[in-house]
Amino acid sequence: MLSVSAPFKSGFQGAADYTDVAVGPLAINNAADLYLYPNTVYAVKVNGADIQKWLEAAAKRFNQIDPAKTTEQALISTFPGYNFDMFTTPDVQYEIDVTQPVGSRIKNLAYLGKAINPAQEFVIATNNYRATSGKSFIDKLDGSGTIWASPDANRDVVIDYIRKNPAVTRTANGSAKSWRFAKVKTAGAVVFSSGAGALSVAQAAGLKNVSLLAADDGSGKGTSKYAIDLSQ
């Protein structure tokens, strides 16, 4: 039993279009900020081969990077951030090799420390939108793979969790990572735009390979330009 999620607020509408939960007591509006849409909880049955394809589709979020290019290359593509599904447990581990073309980027996919078995069956918790309208990821996400459809809204589930667990911390609730970029040394900078003044957020999350290049990325959205060192 696994689950996937994607970031709904990833800068499309400018510098304020990010989820930013301040330190201190949690409020109900924080849950609404985390989960914008009125989706409901669905479960789909897939196998290991499906998971590989699912993640390959999600990896379209990134442009293909040429390691030999000496000029700047943008890491983020036009593929929507809300389609960048990732696993929410460290039981699944994988790398995304952005030097490879779309469809060939997921490397070293493992479950519980072993290479994932293409035939092994998994139940994936997701939302009704992905479970019924995600055929571009895998065929089973056209509704045919759904084995459970809950009437519960994801946002209400988050709110209920916060009510029962008010002491949410980064260590207990936000430190688990399922993936990383495959290490590669690039001749030029690999860059991306994000919220202004957000370098400390990346550092607090343990992302030591991110640096600030320019406080204003020139987009007119109030966002800053950052670089990521893919060799780390």
Short description, anyone?
By secondary structure, the chain is an alpha+beta fold. Helix content is 19%, strand content 28%. It is built from 6 helices and 13 strands.
How does this model look, in words?
- It is a single chain.
- The chain has 232 residues and is α+β, with helices and mostly antiparallel strands.
- It has a domain at 2-61 and 80-181: 5'-Nucleotidase, C-terminal domain (5'-nucleotidase,  domain 2).
- The chain is built from 6 helices and 13 strands.
- It has helices at 28-34, 48-58, 128-133, 154-164, 170-173, 199-204, and strands at 2-5, 40-47, 73-74, 86-87, 92-96, 106-111, 114-115, 121-127, 146-153, 179-181, 190-195, 210-214, 223-228.
- A hairpin with a 2-residue loop joins β6 and β7 (114-115).
- The protein is globular.
- The two termini are 31 Å apart.
The fraction of residues assigned to DSSP E strands is 25-35%
What is the CATH class of one domain? Alpha Beta
Distance between the termini: 31 Å
The CATH level-2 architecture of one domain is identified as: Alpha-Beta Complex
- Please trace the helix and strand order, writing H or E for each element: EHEHEEEEEEHEHHEEHEE
Report the strand count. 13
| CATH structural fold name of one domain | 5'-nucleotidase,  domain 2
Give Rg in angstroms.
Answer: 18 Å
Helical residue percent band: 10-25%
Describe the main β-sheet briefly: 5 strands, mixed
